[in-house]
Design goal:
By secondary structure, the chain is α+β, with helices and mostly antiparallel strands. It contains 15 helices and 16 strands. A hairpin with a 2-residue loop joins strand 12 and strand 13.
Amino acid sequence: MDTAVIRRQFIYLLILAIIVIASLIFSSVVQDPIIEYLTRFFKTVNKDEIESTQMSELAAELLKNFFRIARIILWFILVVAIIRFINSLIFGRALRNASSYELTALIRNVVIILLYIIAFFIIFQSQYPNVALAPLFTGSTILGIVVGLALQDTLGNLFAGLALQADQPFQIGDVITIGTKGMGVVESVTWRGVKIRTFQNRLLIIGNSILGKETIEVAPRDNLNARTVFFNTLYTDSPAKTIQVVREAVRQVENVSQKIRPIVRVRNLGDNGIDWEIKYWVEDYAKFNDTDALIRQRVWYAFQRENINFAYPTRTLYIEKEASTESAVETVNAIYERLSNIPFFAPLSDEETEKLADAAHLRIFAPDESIVRQGQPGGSMFVVHKGSVNVNILEDDKPKTINTLREGEFFGEMSLLTGEPRSATVVANEESQIIQIGKFALKTILDDNPNLVKTLSELVEERRALLSQNEEKHLSTTKKQDVKAFKSIRKFFGLN
């Protein structure tokens, strides 16, 4: 507290003390003369000595009680002023430095009430020494029962408040949810109850005795609290693209913490589309309603820019048309163009390449999804049509990336031609479209053109030699074949 304020309060206290002490001295000085004057007055007015004596004694007793009550009031005023000055001097500083404002304030109120009660007892006993106050409060069973019943709720709130403050489950500024009672920001905690400002700007006051029996969900103000927002998309929209677009949109929203990356994940595969969940962490939980709304708005605009569609309840009637055949033809043509540009299939004629493209399959893999695993039985090869993949091998029981293949590159040709187990694990680096060519797709071509076996076996030997030179240290554990590629191919495809 400011020194000038303390000095000013001390001066006010000193002036009040001087006035009170002067009044007490004045009352002590004038009490006896006034009583003596009244005694003479009643004797003069009333000639009956007995009656005048009784009246003068009654007047004197009333006057003494008046002065006693006046002195009690004056002393109590002085005590209140002193306690309030000490409160502002000591507890004011303690409240500013305390880590728990509510607990210090509650202790202050309890101490002040106890001081008032003790001061009243002392002052009262000093003026009425023959009146015993203790038996008045403790000796009457009926009075004790009445007082106990009357203060049942008050005492319950007091002790429940003490328990809550000692445990400190929440503080001012925290967002709490109390069962079915409501949800809001804690504004104050007193010995009677808790004041909560709801998100409808209403004030909710709950007694401590009731609060102690409820389940309380607390979102601390100095903690990163998580929130979830839901949305959905059509099945035709790419999940990998959706995750990337939504995550970037959420990270730019105000009040979303930058310390933890937002999580965007598939919650369910619903009837009308893919159900999604956004999990993010807020810096100020009291503003979560506005943050949720802003995230939904940003997701909508991001979807508009990226041509991603929200799902909604629909009923679609599919009628088979030749357009579906045209779509399949377009896919085959795209595969044909890709295979035609791969040197490994250069020995094939256009007709054979077209036949191979027609029998191939276009597969879509999610990011970090395995396409083949090391040691897995072979029988097909793969061509990267869109995206990229990582080639990993186990080294000290840990995966290690030895190569990254991009559009137009291929892998698994050894397994396609000889049936060798997979020598490495291939994982999609991003959402990728992979062309898969199976054993039976190539067998029909080799049956019609057996001379291709020799050409393909030479290509296999050349590629195996190239891999041995470039990646010898990675492929040193691969089992070497004891037979020529030519014989291996003929045997694998059952060619005589």
